[in-house]
């Protein structure tokens, strides 16, 4: 294998690794945003809670 082919292979591997890392970071950011939204939703009061009374015995 010559130097040029080795250099191309090394650059392709580096690019692949960079893309994988960027994708993982983006996935983590989206998951964190989803978690924050879910926590906000859980903290919000239920829209129908306390609006009615069950009078059936």
Automatic annotation (TrEMBL):
Question: One of this protein's Pfam families, by short name?
Answer: YjfB_motility
Domain of life per record? Bacteria
* The protein's name in its UniProt record: YjfB family protein
Origin species:
Metabacillus bambusae
């Amino acid at each position: 294998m010559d130097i040029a082919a080795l250099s191309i292979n090394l650059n392709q591997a580096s690019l692949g690794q960079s893309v994988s890392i960027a994708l993982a970071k983006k996935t983590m950011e989206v998951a964190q945003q989803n978690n924050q939204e879910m926590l906000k939703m859980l903290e919000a009061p239920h829209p129908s809670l306390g609006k009615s009374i069950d009078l059936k015995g």
